[in-house]
Prior knowledge:
Layout: E1 12-16, E2 21-30, E3 34-41, E4 44-51, H1 58-70, E5 82-85, E6 93-96, E7 104-105, H2 106-110, H3 118-137, E8 140-141, E9 150-152, E10 159-161, E11 168-169, H4 186-189, H5 197-213, H6 221-224, H7 231-240, H8 261-267, H9 272-281, H10 284-287, H11 296-308, E12 310-312, E13 319-321, H12 324-329, E14 349-352, E15 355-358, E16 364-365, H13 367-370, E17 383-387, E18 395-399, E19 405-408, E20 414-417, E21 422-424, E22 430-432, E23 437-441
Antiparallel strand pairs: 1-2, 1-5, 2-3, 3-4, 4-6, 5-6, 7-9, 8-11, 9-10, 12-13, 14-15, 14-23, 16-17, 17-18, 18-21, 19-20, 19-22, 22-23
Helix pairs in contact: 3-5, 3-11
Amino acid sequence: MEELQILREGDMVRMEPSGMVCKVEKLLGAGGQGEVYKATLGGEAVALKWFFPQMATPDQRAAIELLVRKGAPSEHFLWPLELAVAPNVQGFGYVMGLRPARFKNIVDLMKRKIEPTFRALATASFNLAHNYLQLHTQGFCYRDISFGNAFFDPDTGDILICDCDNVAPDGRGTLGVLGTPRFMAPEVVRGDAVPSTSTDLFSLAVLIFYMLTVAHPLEGKRETEIKCLDLAAMNKLYGTEPIFIYNPNDESNRPVPGIHDNALAFWRIYPQFLRDLFTRAFTEGLRDPLHGRVRESEWRAAAIRLRDAIIYCAHCGLENFYDADKLKATNGNPGLCWACAVNLKLPPRIRVNRQVVMLNHDTRLFPHHTDDDRLYDFTAPVAEVARHPTDKNIWGLKNLSDDKWVVTAADGSIRDVEPQRSVTLAVGTRIHFGKIEGEIRT
């Protein structure tokens, strides 16, 4: 049976307001709101979304026109570029950029089709929080944050946010979109609120939890006791009686071995500061939507701290994490590798202001590490860990910046380290990067 399509290959649709003509090539897929096609506009490949007739309302059209006028908060959004209309086809659509093949759906992570590193996951978490912050600061809410609407590069952690026709001014109307089940804030599930930046914050916390643990923060023992996960059961689990699976004051919804193994395995891997942030997001954030939710800026800082905390097991080579809280509790014992159970050995680390960066063989410092005025600047590394050119047992920190460093050794001697030169990773060495000083420790 031939598949029903709104548009056909070769159809021409007109852009508004430019008046340019877009040629339809092929159907890429369909969702609840409409169909998405590959098309050509001005000689370049684009994606064309065409709304189903029942979704092509005047309010939806006005929403798309507003988004086109405002423009994307950043290049990480597959944002509506222009409205699309056709003389002989009911409704309307819009064009946006095509998603490059390197970006994978987060669902692929759930299904273990991709195996990103912890560094890539931490970077993707940072990028998601950062870009949703850009959206929110422009007065918009996304309304439907979920793993179906965000894509990431499993090699680099770069992200793309799609389905941006859901975006609307903060708290104004719903256009029929309340969110995705299991990601909606409890107050939206209960019908007490419409989507807003506050409900976005809850959905963002769920998304980051999913990415880092491959599990849902509210699905534990109580989920297994539900015989039929119908609407009433879902309202209870996610709306009226949600309980975080690691709530420190309520163990009734703990993960069940054999069912929630991802939650059990991954939770113990992460440093305490991250577990504390998740705990706040799904305890205070459940009780107090206005004041208890973790902000995007906090997720950004936590994701960067997580990146900087990565260490490698000397036995199996897999990523683990430096956990200052664990070291205090165990008199300096970093514990066992989560993968091979061999005792971990900590590499040197550098403290720069409040930041602690583990100096692994592949560690790089970026401008945001060494200059308070360049927040989250990853444009180019300013330093990297490197081996001595003649003695492979000696490691140093190489100056990749354009400025010289002033280095004070543990014995008090002072010398300059010019660009492309290195300073040995010796305990007690202080490096003045220009505006900030760091100290190498063990």
